[in-house]
Structures are given as C-alpha cells and as structure tokens.
Amino acid sequence: MVKKYLMTPGPTPVPAAVACAQAADMISHRGREFHELFQYVSTTLREFIGTTREVYLLTGSGTSAMEAAVANVMSPGEKALVVRSGHFGNRWAEILKAYGVMVRAVDVEWGRAVNPKLVAERLAEDTAGEIRAVFVTFVDTSTGVVQNIEEIGGIVAETNALLVVDAVSGLGAMDYRMDEWNVDVTLSASQKSFMAPPGIAFISMSSKAWKVCERAKCPRYYLDLRKYRQWAEKFETPCTPAVSTLRALGKSLELMMEEGLANIYSRHEKMARATRAAVTALALRLFPLNPANVLTIIRPPDEIGADELRDHIARNYGVTLGGGQAQLKNRVVRIAHMGSVGPFDVITAISALEGALADKGFVVELGAGVAAAEEIFKET
Ligand SMILES: *Cc1c(COP(=O)(O)O)cnc(C)c1O
Q: How far apart are CA 310 and CA 329, in angstroms?
C-alpha cells in the first residue's frame, strides 16, 4: 500500500473533524437545528467574502454558483465583458453564451494578470453603456494567477456595469473584500480553501446587483436567487440542500475562525513562498508571472511530459498533484497548497517531486528543494 496525499487544487484534504461532522445524524432542513447551522455558515462566510450582505447557500459545485450569477443578473441579448484569463475565464464565456448573452472578451495571455487598464478602455469605448457586467476570476486555478480585483472594482464602479467575480479558488485563503473593492457578485464553493467536501456553493450580491436581478430575463428556476432570498429569512433554502456537506462546512468554518483570517492568509502566503523557493531551487520553471498563494504551477523539463511525471509521483509516492487544463494539458504540474495545509504537506510534495525527477534520470540534488522550503519555514 502506498500512503496517499491529496494535493490537487480542489477537492482539497478534509480534516478528520470536518469529515466526522458529515457523519452526524441526518436532520430536517426545515427544523431548528438546521436554522442554526444555516445562520452560522451564512454569517461566517460573510467574513471571508468581506461583505455585510446576505450569503446564499446553493447545492452544487462552484459552477452552479457561476451559472446562478449569470442567470440572475443578465438578460439574453445583452452584452457582457469577460476577462478570459484561463480555463475558468473561458467557462464564464461558455455559460454566458449558453444563456444567450453576447460575450465581449479581454483575452489575457495565460499565466499573466490582466492589466486593469484594458478593462477600463473597453468600458470607456462602450459609450452607449451596453456592457451590463464584467466577469472576472479571482484566481484562475488553471494558470495560478491572481487578478487585481480591487483595481478592477474601482474601474467598474464608475460605470453602470456590475462586477461579477468567481472566487471559487482563493477565497478563504487570501484576503478578499467584496464591499470595499466594489464587487457586485461574489461566489465560491466548499471544496477548495474551505476544506470541506464538494457539494455546497455560495453567492452574495450587492444592492446594485439585486436591482438588476429583479428585472433580469434569463430563465431560472433552481438557481433563482430571489427564492433563496425569501427562504433565507427563515434560515432555510428553497429545496433540500446537501445537509451533510453543510454540516462539514460548518465545522471547517469553526476551525477557520479559531485560526483567524489573518493567520490563515499568512499561512498560505508562507506555503506559497516555500513551494516557489523549493521548485526554483530544483531549477524548475514557474508558470505564472503573478502567482496566487493557493497553488504553484510548474513546467517540468521539456524531455518529460507533465502527465508522465505526475503519474509517476502518484503511483510511486502516493502524492496526487493537479495536471494542466485545456491548452496547458500535459505541459504543467499544479501543486495545490490551499485549505488544510502545513509545512509538511509542502515538504512531502517537494520531496516526491525530487524523487521522481531523479527516478526519471534528471540531475537533481536530493533535498535541495526541501532545504529551500525549510529555510522559509524557519523564518518567524
Ligand atoms: C474549481 C473552480 C471552479 C468550480 O469548479 P467546480 O468543479 O464546478 O466546483 C470555478 N472556478 C475556479 C477558478 C475554480 O478553481
């Protein structure tokens, strides 16, 4: 048996206490115990989102909340500006098209952050105000890049357009301030930095977005946020939610509040810095130019396919790493450090990487990456 270590950018490792919380007795989603859980989860999530607005809980993966965002603030035939920053930026465009929205794109070279000025220019060109919303990805997990939401928010706030942010990756691990940054819609999900199993997504909207929601004409039923708003008054959801996953999320939020937001963010910053230092010490190339603190994406040596390396690591070392998506398929390896991660997770991943590179005949100084990571962890 090879002991397993999960280091993919979602789902992420679930702490035992969180896994156990899921196994508790089933409860009615129309009862008092559920109301308390609902209240705790939705109010605690506000702290991570940085909003005073209500947070609505959906049953589905992160993409369900992306779809909810589109269906609730857009009408068919309207125009939206999408920052296509990677695989998940493309997903915004696909969902919008599926709902009959006309997509205008700011295409960003994969691995780079968008220059917010490009968004400003596109909005300025739109003198008729036809662009109703700007869709962005906080951390595009396919490229490992973090976008400057604060600056984009300041630009969009000057217009009548809404700013919609997919924060599935990054939220809960990196500082995020929906209200302060003028974000109109923020969404995320349970299975990344929130250390819970997949199954719950959540979304919050500004009053500017709610006004648009009232007259938006995209068809919606299961994801109609007006219904969620009504039911939230009684601390319930319109239909049966994934009660067990919600219990798990409640537990992880308790753990996260115990650690404290500032500590969580600095821990992720340290994990990221250590991982980057380690792969740099191994002479591996980092993929993104503006790396986020939740994952490190590397380009293995050209002679070895990324998927072959990943597969070797999984089979022989038990460490599951993420592969490249879309145009990066078989070109990169993604090492996640989001959620329930500490120094020894990073060291494990780096050590496996060193071993596998050596197995494949590359000259690596065993321990060089681990030592570089340890230097970072030693800092106080
Ligand atoms: C994981 C992820 C999603 C959602 O994916 P699901 O599989 O639907 O949960 C969306 N956006 C980003 C940036 C992600 O990393």
A: 12
Confirm if 324 and 332 have CB atoms less than 8 A apart.
Answer: yes
Residues in CB range of 326: below 8 A, 6 or more apart = 86, 87, 90, 142
**How many angstroms is it from 136 CA to the middle of ligand 1?**
13
pLDDT at residue number 1: 84
Long-range (24+ apart) CB contacts under 8 A made by 255-263 are 255/15, 255/17, 255/18, 255/195, 256/44, 256/48, 256/172, 256/194, 256/195, 257/44, 257/47, 261/47, 261/48, 261/175
Q: Report the separation in Å between the CA atom of 169 and the middle of ligand 1, taken as the mean of its atom positions.
A: 7
CATH of domain 260-377: 3.90.1150.10
- Write out the residue limits of the CATH 3.90.1150.10 domain(s) in the chain: 260-377
Q: Measured from the CA of 137, which atom of ligand 1 is nearest?
A: 13
What does the pLDDT read at residue 380? 76
Q: Which atom of ligand 1 is nearest to the CA of 191?
A: 9
β-pair type (139-140, 319-323): unpaired
The DSSP call for residue 50 is T
Question: Which numeric CATH code is attached to 16-257?
Answer: 3.40.640.10
Which residue carries 């199993």 as its tokens? 197
Note the pTM of the prediction, 2 decimals.
0.98
Secondary structure of residue 135 in the 3-state scheme = strand
- Partner residues linked to 82 by β-bridges: 105, 135
Instruction: Note the pLDDT tens digit of each residue in 230-251.
Output: 999 999 999 999 999 999 999 9
Q: How far does Cα 236 stand from its chain's mean position?
A: 25
Cα 26 to ligand 1 centroid, rounded to whole Å:
28
Atom index in ligand 1 nearest the CA of residue 189 equals 9
| 136 and 228 Cβ atoms separated by less than 8 Å | no
Strand 185-189, strand 162-166: pairing: parallel
DSSP letter for 326, please. G
Intervals of the chain under pLDDT 70:
none
Q: How far is the CA of 365 from the centre of ligand 1 (A)?
A: 36
pLDDT confidence of residue 328: 96
What is the secondary structure of 79-109 as a DSSP string? EEEEEE-SHHHHHHHHHHHHTTPEEEEEE--
Helix, strand, or coil (residue 318): coil
- The pLDDT of residue 311 is 98
